[in-house]
Design brief:
about 140 residues; mainly alpha; two-stranded antiparallel sheet; elongated; 2 strands
């Protein structure tokens, strides 16, 4: 590998020692030395914008207005959900009243019938359990 820094030429020897590259203006522009560097220009512009007090104020106002809109949206959603839950609670109370009235009617009917329905219900339950026992035993 041979280098000649004085005339800015660089030769890289391969396996046989031949020249791999000839960079007459090494280092190339943009990497320091030969020309004006463009690396970090965008970053410098961003830093300049960040240091500008007016721009900081504008960005801060934008962020504040965005947070204000989000908090208002959250508040609206909470109010809507609370109204929905309130209506749902009222509906459940109404259903509870109807269910308790139905159960009271069922108990009154059961009391008028005597013990006959209870006997048939018990007999039915025993038959179901016997059938399931035989069915599961046979498998």
């Amino acid at each position: 590998m041979a280098t000649s820094i004085g005339n800015r030429q660089r030769h890289f020897g391969g396996a046989r020692g031949e020249a791999q590259g000839n960079f007459s203006s090494y280092p190339p522009s943009g990497f320091g030395g030969g020309g004006k560097s463009r690396i970090g220009v965008g970053r410098q512009d961003e830093e300049a914008d960040e240091n500008d007090p007016n721009n900081k104020d504008t960005r801060l106002r934008g962020k504040i207005s965005m947070l204000k809109e989000v908090s208002i949206s959250i508040g609206d959603e909470i109010r809507d959900q609370n109204q929905f839950l309130g209506k749902m609670g009222e509906d459940m109370e109404g259903m509870g009243g109807r269910l308790s009235a139905t159960m009271k009617n069922f108990y009154d009917m059961w009391a008028r019938q005597g013990c006959g329905p209870f006997f048939y219900l018990t007999l039915f339950a025993i038959c179901v359990f016997v059938f399931l026992y035989i069915y599961l035993k046979a498998r």
